[in-house]
C-alpha cells in the first residue's frame, strides 16, 4: 500500500535527558506505515537547524520519500517533553517553528502526487486546514487527527472534508466519548475513532460502536502510542476492505482495532515516538 503523511513534523526534546527524537503526528504516520511494510512518503515543512537535519537524515535512512517537502531558514518545530512514570508530559514548544510562518499550500504538482496514494493523513497541528478540501477533491482517502484540541466549530469545519477522524478522548467519560464520536460522524466523517489511553479505544461507523481494550505492557514511553494505534488500525482496515478478507464490516473493524492495540503496545516499549534519538 502507498500512504502519505501531510503536515506536521517536530523533534520531541526530552529535557530530563537532553535527547531529541523525530516525531509529529503526520510524520509518525508515515514512519509507522513504513515499519508495517508499506510504501510511505511524507510532505511537510522543515527548518534548517540541527533538529531539521536529524529528521531529514532519519527519514532518508528509513527510505521514506520526502521529495515534495519544503525547507525554510529558521527553527524546526519542536515540543519539550518530560516523563512521569513512563507517561509523556508536554511542557512547551515553538508551535511548529517555520511551519507556522510557511504553512503548506498544496500545488497542482503536490495534488497529482498525493493522488497516487491510497490514503493521506494530516492533523490539527499541521496548520493546513484550509488545504484539506484540495486533498478531498483528489479522491484519495483522507484521515485527520484532532488530538484533544478540537472544538465543536473546528469539528464542523473539518469533518466535511475528512473520511476518517481520530480524537483523543481520555479526558472524557465513556458516555461523553460515545456521544462525541457519534456527533463527529454526523459532521461528515464515515469512520470516527476515539482513543482513551488505558481505557482502550472505540470506533463508530454510523451503524454500530466497537470497543477495544488496550494490550497492557509496562511502558518505557507512551509517546506515539496513539499515532501507531491509528496507523495500524487504518492500514489493516483499508487492506481488509480492499481484499474482502473478512465476512462482515463489523469483523473487519474489530480485527483492525485489535491490530491497532497490538502495535500501540509495542510502541510503548520504545524511547520517543520511534527511537532515533540524538543529544541536544
TrEMBL record:
Keyword Kinase: yes
Gene3D superfamilies for the chain: 3.40.1190.20
Cross-referenced InterPro entries: PfkB_Carbo_kinase, PfkB_dom, Ribokinase-like
The keyword Transferase is assigned to this record: yes
GO molecular function, one term: kinase activity
CDD domains xref list: Fructoselysine_kinase_like (cd01940)
One Pfam entry name: PfkB
Record's keyword terms, sorted: Kinase, Transferase
Positions of the Carbohydrate kinase PfkB domain: 11-273
Sequence similarity: Belongs to the carbohydrate kinase PfkB family.
Protein name: Fructoselysine 6-kinase
Native source organism of the sequence: Sutcliffiella cohnii
Amino acid at each position: 500500500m502507498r500512504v502519505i503523511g501531510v503536515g506536521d513534523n517536530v523533534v520531541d526534546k526530552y529535557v530530563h535527558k537532553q535527547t531529541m527524537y523525530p516525531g509529529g503526528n503526520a510524520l509518525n504516520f508515515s514512519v509507522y506505515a513504513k515499519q508495517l511494510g508499506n510504501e510511505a512518503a511524507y510532505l511537510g515543512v522543515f527548518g534548517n537547524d540541527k533538529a531539521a537535519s536529524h529528521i531529514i537524515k532519519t527519514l532518508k535512512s528509513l527510505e521514506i520519500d520526502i521529495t515534495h517537502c519544503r525547507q525554510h531558514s529558521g527553527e524546526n518545530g519542536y515540543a519539550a517533553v518530560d516523563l512521569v512514570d513512563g507517561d509523556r508530559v508536554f511542557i512547551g514548544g515553538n508551535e511548529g517553528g517555520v511551519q507556522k510562518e510557511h504553512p503548506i499550500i498544496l500545488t497542482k504538482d503536490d495534488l497529482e502526487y498525493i493522488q497516487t496514494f491510497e490514503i493521506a493523513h494530516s492533523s490539527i497541528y499541521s496548520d493546513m486546514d484550509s488545504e484539506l478540501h484540495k486533498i478531498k477533491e483528489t479522491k484519495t482517502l483522507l484521515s485527520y487527527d484532532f488530538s484533544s484540541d478540537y472544538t465543536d466549530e473546528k469539528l464542523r469545519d473539518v469533518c466535511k472534508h475528512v473520511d476518517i477522524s481520530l480524537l483523543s478522548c481520555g479526558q472524557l467519560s465513556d458516555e461523553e466519548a460515545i456521544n462525541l464520536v457519534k456527533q463527529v460522524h454526523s459532521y461528515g466523517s464515515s469512520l470516527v475513532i476515539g482513543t482513551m489511553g488505558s481505557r482502550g479505544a472505540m470506533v463508530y461507523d454510523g451503524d454500530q460502536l466497537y470497543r477495544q481494550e488496550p494490550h497492557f505492557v509496562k511502558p518505557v514511553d507512551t509517546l506515539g502510542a496513539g499515532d501507531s494505534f491509528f496507523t495500524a488500525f487504518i492500514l489493516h482496515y483499508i487492506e481488509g476492505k480492499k481484499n474482502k478478507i473478512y465476512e462482515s464490516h463489523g469483523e473487519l473493524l474489530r480485527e483492525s482495532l485489535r491490530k491497532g492495540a497490538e502495535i500501540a503496545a509495542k510502541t510503548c516499549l520504545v524511547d520517543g515516538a520511534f527511537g532515533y534519538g540524538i543529544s541536544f
